[in-house]
Amino acid sequence: MGLAHQHMPQGVAENYRYWGEEQTVFVQSAKGCVLTDCDGKEFVDFRLGYGPIILGYRDERVDEAVAKAMRERGILTGFSSPLDVPVIEAIKALCPQIEKMRFANSGTEAVMGALRTARGFTGRDRVVVVEGGFHGLYDEMMWKSDMEGWSGGPGTVPDIVPFGAGIPKGSRELVDFLSLNDFDELEALFSRGGDTIAAVLLEPIMGNCGSIAATPEWLQALRQACSQAGAMLVIDEVKTGFRVARGGAQELYGITADLTTYAKAMGNGYPVACFGGRADVMDVIGAGGGVVHGGTYTGNLVGLSASLATLEILKETDALEVAATMGAAIQASLGRVFEGAGVAHRFTGPDAMFGVHFTADEVPSNYRDWKRTDSPLYTAFAWNLIERGVMLEPDSREPWFLCEAHRALDLSWFEAVATEAMEVALTKA
Ligand SMILES: Cc1ncc(COP(=O)(O)O)c(C=O)c1O
């Protein structure tokens, strides 16, 4: 760490990678579902870079397609390429709500593009997000419910605070918050001024809040409220897209957004993202007073060739079924471990992106419920897993991610390690 500190704030390239002076992980290499750190220690990885790895690290089918594109086509020219349309066709084959799309390079950029498009189409500024959601590191999405500082007392609600310094106060005025699955709040929000809302942006299965999920009834009510108010429903499928089902969360719910964002799994780790949806909405992008969107690296051939290969594999093979089957097996295993240790627990979310919550209450239905779970015990359990060669985020707001390469996992090894990790966590609790 010492050397890295001389060159980067916190010694890391991104704040969330700093886990402490002793704990920060430096990865030497990754293959399949295994990470090897710079001391040569191996970890079976359930963090998967915060979700983009859906097939496995260094998947040869994808890597070879990218190498071929670089050899034969180059990386970017600042012009359109013959790969643009096939990638969108591949997405449309899996996600029928998509009529038109544009590319981006990260989830953050995709969200920025989608929200600008929603505002351009509606002529409104206000955006509503759901408590506990995460939509990227840019100013107006960097306000959150202060769950750590909230007492949880009846009749109180968490304060809204910026992620940190440097967020302009003015950006707060553009964003409103809604608690997932709360029908009263939904009604109050829209009756207070639904016709001033440009977009409601949410992850129906919260990939940044332990996979706590919207009920189909609440999501349907939100869909209806948006349609009636002329507000855009923007579903952020950056984590769920091409992971929880081929058609993402929208396939599972049978409810469609006006605009959708995708990133992560669409490129198995290569930097590529996109947003799109209704053609009449997307067509607001254009010259002569329309929405402006783009960027030097937009539609670069590294990202597009990776995406085309990944989407083809996801469509034609059982990769997603394998990831889900392994996720179900891991949950069964964890369930036995927790029961053996007498730890009340609930699993949330789909098998390829599931959450674990230590609680005897009902399955958490929103971020405020998460506050009532025993997240310190989870964190202690997670650190003990990490020590024993199982990598995950030591925070129960980050789900467990599965990929096709977990097929090779030794489940009895995993269960033995998890049993020991829980025993130690309880002893020290
Ligand atoms: C739902 C969601 N949206 C947007 C983002 C931002 O994506 P990126 O980190 O690629 O900018 C993330 C990142 O984790 C995410 O989970």
CATH topology of the largest domain: Aspartate Aminotransferase, domain 2
Which strands sit side by side, in order, in the main sheet? 4-14-13-12-9-5-8
CATH architecture identity of the largest domain: 3-Layer(aba) Sandwich
Distinct small molecules bound, one entry per kind: pyridoxal-5'-phosphate
For the sheet with most strands, the description reads: 7 strands, mixed
Strand fraction: 15-25%
Helix vs. strand class: alpha/beta
Average predicted local confidence, pLDDT: 97
| CATH superfamily grouping of the largest domain | Type I PLP-dependent aspartate aminotransferase-like (Major domain)
Give the fraction of residues assigned to helices.
Answer: 25-40%
CATH C-level label of the largest domain: Alpha Beta
Shape designation: globular
Estimated radius of gyration: 21 Å
Number of strands: 18
Number of helices: 14
User: Separation of termini?
Assistant: 29 Å
Pick out the low-confidence regions.
none
* Count of folded domains: 2
Task: Please give a structural write-up.
By secondary structure, the protein is an alpha/beta fold. The protein has two domains: 168 residues, Aspartate Aminotransferase, domain 1; 257 residues, Aspartate Aminotransferase, domain 2 (3-Layer(aba) Sandwich). 37% of the residues lie in helices and 16% in strands. It is built from 14 helices and 18 strands. The chain has a seven-stranded mixed sheet with strand order 4-14-13-12-9-5-8, sandwiched between helices. A four-stranded mixed sheet has the order 1-2-3-17. A three-stranded antiparallel sheet has the order 15-16-18, covered by helices on one side. α2 packs antiparallel against α10, α3 packs parallel to α10 and α11 packs parallel to α14. The longest helix has 23 residues. The radius of gyration is 21 Å and the shape is globular. Bound molecules: pyridoxal-5'-phosphate.
